[in-house]
């Protein structure tokens, strides 16, 4: 986004407010959250009697994942990871991750750490801590498995960097959160040896060494592509690792399974033994929170799984043990085996069927959305929502993890909702126009 676009975006709410004051028009002052029957899974599944028909078989799901990886280079099949990569490639990846947060230059950002202005020393050390100068010509890949819910960072720094002194939710260093049992390819160490630069199935970043354990390639491959596995189907659940620690998992997390006594299945839980991977077996209890294998890929399962998050807190980059807009839809899709890119701007346009809405008026946009299946993604550069269908009045309804909304008229302002909600697709955006008019792409499986 160029500087003029940024300036115009910031001015639009002010310009729109002046127009409201001059014309006397009164616009919405209420939260876009819907709390009636439309905010239930049953409302939508009962309207779709064919919604439990399987859309994709397991082999078709894998073919879809391969197609998604071809369309988007942020997605990686870790089983194809070579034994070594060039130091130049690792440097390029580190710098690309830095650039996500605008940390790729020596220019100090205007941010806050621990409630005080970020110092020049803190910023320069965080960049030095990336340890690029120490990269060898050839990097030998190491193999790790996450042992507790962990934060993947844009720089090797545990403390949050925020845009205001009082903020505790929107950490600019946060890339995403990783569930236990997530495999990572280790490509380098930080200068202070507390972090490692890793590749995951959908993101690169810095991971605290206390949050993963290293192992050999064969054992690691069993976490990359387990032959038998359990999938978390609740919005979140806790499972003890068999070593006295209760671990938080979110929807879509995969845990390898093995055969136990009397035909029962056991979970293979990853535990760190002084940095080395130790696998502890514990009984698998399958219920509505843990499923053997992926859920069937159906329209109604998109609806049911989405509503399991309803009311959950908005969690930027997976912070606050929750989901932001893109991890919300990513977790829903992954519970059925489909691996989406992590970021909103990449998700919809990577799907098998994409509708580009650029140049369309509102009526055409709504008509295009009406033709879409439940589970379709509506995305622009900063936000993504999941389509449910049309209500009795023909209004398109979506699920979304919403950070904030704007009111206009006498109660003009930005309001932080920070919650997973059902809403229309036509609530007013920051400039006071129906949100559907700012959607760039519709993305769906068919």
From TrEMBL:
GO terms for biological process: proteolysis. Keywords: Hydrolase, Protease, Thiol protease. Pfam families: NLPC_P60, SH3_6. InterPro entries: NLP_P60_dom, P60_peptidase_YkfC, Papain-like_cys_pep_sf, Peptidase_C40, SH3b1_dom. Belongs to the peptidase C40 family. SUPFAM superfamilies: Cysteine proteinases. Residues 296-428 form the NlpC/P60 domain. The keyword Protein biosynthesis does not apply. GO terms for molecular function: cysteine-type peptidase activity. The keyword Aminoacyl-tRNA synthetase does not apply. This is NlpC/P60 domain-containing protein.
């Amino acid at each position: 986004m160029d500087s003029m676009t940024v300036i115009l975006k910031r001015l639009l709410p002010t310009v729109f407010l002046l127009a409201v004051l001059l014309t006397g028009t009164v616009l919405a002052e209420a939260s876009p959250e819907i709390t009636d029957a439309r905010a239930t899974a049953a409302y939508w599944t009962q309207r779709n009697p064919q919604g439990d028909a399987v859309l994709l078989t397991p082999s078709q799901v894998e073919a879809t994942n391969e197609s998604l990886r071809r369309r988007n280079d942020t997605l990686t099949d870790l089983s194809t990871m070579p034994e070594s990569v060039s130091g130049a490639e690792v440097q390029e990846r580190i710098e690309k991750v830095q650039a996500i947060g605008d940390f790729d230059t020596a220019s100090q950002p205007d941010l806050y750490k621990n409630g005080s202005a970020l110092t020049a020393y803190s910023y320069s050390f965080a960049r030095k801590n990336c340890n690029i100068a120490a990269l060898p010509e050839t990097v030998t890949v190491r193999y790790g498995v996450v042992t507790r819910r962990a934060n993947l960072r844009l720089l090797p720094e545990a403390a949050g960097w925020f845009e205001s002194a009082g903020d505790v939710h929107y950490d600019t260093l946060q890339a995403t959160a990783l569930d236990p049992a997530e495999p990572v390819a280790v490509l380098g160490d930080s200068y202070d040896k507390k972090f490692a630069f890793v590749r995951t199935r959908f993101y690169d970043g810095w991971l605290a060494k206390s949050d993963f354990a290293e192992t050999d390639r064969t054992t690691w491959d069993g976490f990359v592509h387990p032959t038998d596995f359990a999938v978390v189907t609740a919005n979140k659940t806790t499972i003890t690792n068999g070593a006295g620690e209760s671990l938080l998992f979110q929807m879509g997390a995969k845990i390898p399974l093995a055969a136990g006594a009397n035909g029962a299945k056991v979970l293979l839980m990853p535990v760190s033994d002084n940095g080395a991977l130790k696998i502890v077996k514990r009984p698998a209890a399958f219920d509505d929170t843990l499923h053997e294998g992926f859920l069937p890929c159906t329209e109604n399962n998109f609806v049911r799984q989405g509503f399991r998050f309803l009311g959950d807190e908005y969690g930027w980059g997976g912070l606050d043990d929750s989901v932001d807009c893109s991890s919300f839809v990513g977790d829903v899709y992954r519970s059925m085996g489909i691996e989406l890119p992590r970021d909103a701007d990449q998700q919809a346009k990577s799907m098998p069927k994409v509708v580009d809405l650029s140049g369309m008026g509102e009526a055409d946009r709504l008509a295009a959305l009406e033709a879409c299946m439940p589970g379709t993604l509506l995305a622009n550069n900063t936000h993504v929502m999941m389509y449910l269908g049309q209500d009795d009045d023909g209004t398109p309804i979506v699920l979304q993890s919403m950070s904030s909304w704007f009111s206009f008229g006498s109660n003009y302002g930005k309001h932080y909702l920070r919650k997973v909600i059902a809403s229309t697709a036509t609530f007013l955006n920051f400039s006071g126009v129906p949100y559907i008019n700012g959607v760039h792409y519709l993305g769906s499986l068919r």
